[in-house]
């Protein structure tokens, strides 16, 4: 019996010791301002506080981030405490004193530990009053839901709904009723687990309750019995939390805020519209649409006694979610799906790239010899090269000056383009290389850049005869009655070939062989 008495007294002593333990009380020294972070647990909109002058700290913490959205405004900070990032929430209190009631509240929340609630770390009681809790880097549930860039199938959504229900069931089990359960007080950690924040410490937060509930976005989460209560302070209840949870379920289903500009503020009968839970893509369908809608209606029942408990809500959600896959596994499956899709897209883009490269290569090889073009593309210097056995061909149009004078520029271009397109198709049948066309002059060489022994003479000669035959059959588009004739000059011998210039480089031929062939062309008769 004495042993039991001793054990009982020891537990009472430990309880009293924890009650008066003040290790949770933090000051500016515990969270130095220069270690404060700019990153925040919200991704809607971030703006740095620009009012503070350089080198000044008008408040205990200077690096304030102002989060503004379409429906709410909050001052939230993050800081470094004990080597880790923590979330810091400022409490707007005019006067504050540590009473025994507050000590009991703090003692209570310090003992709470659950994977779906944010762990309480500490707070301040002097100067800037703030509460420090576990930091969740993905931001609030509202930030994730309202961001269309974040893909969320119903596996994720039901996981979030279940996480909130588990966290709230744990809090209610420990006689803590939230009273401020909104989607912005549900935060997502780096493993995509949803956690409840801003819970407990009712007296500690008391002064901000009325201010919070008067804001339109927060007011839509209030149960009818809370709205109809004119008191400045309403004690939170389990049923009121369940009603707030129903509004969050609607947000999870619709992925948008139920608040609109014409939403009534003090209408106890108002309820948001339950969205259509079936969409075209089966992957995004709610697995049990009727049960989900029925659960929402039960949770926002006008009579508080008719609302289910969070333990009952958990069971309903477990029946609705047949997969019961963890968020991490769902994220891995999603990444695998995206990876396969990405592989398909990359393969398609690679094929498109290869096709475009082939087009570019064809264009490049039509302007420069392939070995020369490859060297230039690799950034190599293309040295001039001499060839001992070559044959050069020159030709021009007889009376081209007269034809040009009697034609418009467009007619001249059209005429030459059609003629030389036929020439280009003809020389493809011979081992020759087209050097260039300048005006009506057409220049071809054989034995360069690919040497072909003594075949260069026969290739150029047979090609020249075919080009003359083409001219006899060719009809000038705008002067069909005029007979087309060309002058031709051919000469064999050595020459030097190389690339000239870096912008629009040209493959040029130099030597007496080129000059002789040009003179023979200019002094020859038309054929």
Summarize the structure.
Its EC number is 4.6.1.2. The chain is α+β, with helices and mostly antiparallel strands and 527 residues long.
Q: What this model shows, in words?
A:
The protein is an alpha+beta fold and 527 residues long. The protein folds into three domains: 20-324, Transferase(Phosphotransferase), domain 1; 332-367; 372-523, 2-Layer Sandwich (Alpha-Beta Plaits), CATH 3.30.70.1230. The chain is 41% helix and 16% strand. It contains 16 helices and 14 strands. It has helices spanning 2-19, 100-110, 141-145, 154-173, 206-213, 216-219, 224-227, 238-254, 289-299, 310-320, 327-367, 370-377, 400-405, 409-427, 455-473, 512-523, and strands spanning 46-48, 65-68, 73-81, 84-90, 120-123, 130-134, 139-140, 186-188, 194-196, 385-397, 433-438, 441-446, 486-500, 506-510. Strands 1-2-3-4-6-5 form a six-stranded antiparallel sheet, with no helix packed on it. Helix 4 packs antiparallel against helix 10 and helix 8 runs antiparallel to helix 9 (289-299). It is elongated, with a radius of gyration of 42 Å. It starts with a helix and ends with a helix. The model is unreliable at 33-75 and 279-283 (pLDDT under 50).
């Amino acid at each position: 019996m004495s042993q039991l008495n001793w054990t009982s007294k020891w537990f009472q002593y430990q309880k009293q010791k924890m009650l008066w333990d003040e290790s949770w009380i933090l000051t500016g020294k515990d969270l130095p301002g220069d270690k404060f972070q700019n990153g925040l647990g919200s991704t809607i909109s971030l703006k740095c506080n620009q009012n503070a002058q350089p080198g000044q700290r008008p408040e205990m913490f200077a690096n304030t981030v102002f989060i503004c959205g379409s429906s709410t405004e909050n001052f939230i900070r993050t800081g470094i405490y004990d080597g880790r990032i923590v979330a810091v929430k400022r409490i707007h209190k005019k006067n504050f004193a540590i009473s025994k009631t507050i000590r009991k509240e703090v003692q209570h929340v310090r003992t709470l530990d659950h994977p779906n609630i944010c762990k309480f770390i500490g707070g301040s009681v002097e100067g800037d009053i703030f509460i420090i809790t576990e930091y969740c880097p993905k931001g609030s549930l509202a930030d994730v839901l309202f961001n269309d860039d974040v893909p969320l199938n119903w596996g994720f959504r039901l996981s979030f709904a279940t996480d909130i229900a588990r966290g709230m069931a744990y809090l209610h089990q420990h006689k803590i009723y939230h009273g401020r359960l909104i989607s912005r007080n549900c935060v997502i950690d780096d493993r995509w687990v949803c956690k409840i924040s801003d819970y407990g410490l009712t007296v500690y937060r008391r002064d901000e309750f009325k201010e919070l509930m008067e804001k339109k976005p927060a007011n839509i989460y209030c149960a009818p019995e809370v709205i109809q209560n004119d008191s400045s302070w309403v004690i939170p209840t389990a049923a009121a939390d369940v009603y707030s949870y129903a509004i969050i379920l609607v947000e999870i289903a619709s992925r948008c805020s139920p608040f609109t500009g014409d939403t009534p503020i003090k209408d106890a009968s108002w309820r948001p519209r339950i969205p259509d839970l079936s969409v075209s893509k089966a992957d995004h369908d709610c697995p049990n649409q009727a049960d989900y809608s029925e659960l929402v209606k039960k949770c926002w029942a006008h009579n508080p006694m008719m609302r289910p408990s969070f333990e009952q809500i958990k069971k309903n959600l477990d029946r609705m979610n047949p997969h019961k896959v963890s968020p991490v596994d769902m994220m891995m499956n999603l990444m695998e799906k995206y990876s396969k899709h990405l592989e398909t897209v990359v393969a398609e883009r690679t094929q498109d790239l290869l096709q475009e490269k082939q087009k570019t290569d064809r264009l490049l090889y039509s302007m420069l010899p392939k070995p020369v073009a490859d060297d230039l593309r690799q950034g190599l210097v293309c040295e001039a090269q001499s060839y001992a056995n070559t044959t050069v061909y020159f030709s021009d149009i007889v009376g081209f000056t007269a034809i040009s004078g009697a034609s418009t520029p467009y007619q001249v271009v059209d005429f030459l383009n059609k003629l030389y397109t036929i020439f280009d198709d003809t020389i493809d049948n011979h081992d020759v290389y087209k050097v260039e066309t300048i005006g009506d002059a057409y220049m071809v060489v054989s034995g360069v850049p690919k040497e072909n022994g003594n075949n260069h003479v026969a290739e150029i000669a047979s090609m020249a005869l075919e080009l003359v035959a083409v001219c006899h059959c060719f009809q000038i588009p705008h002067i069909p009655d005029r007979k087309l004739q060309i002058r031709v000059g051919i000469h064999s011998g050595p020459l030097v070939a190389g690339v000239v210039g870096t912008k629009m480089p040209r493959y040029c031929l130099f030597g007496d062989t080129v000059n002789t062939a040009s003179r023979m062309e200019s002094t020859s008769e038309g054929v």
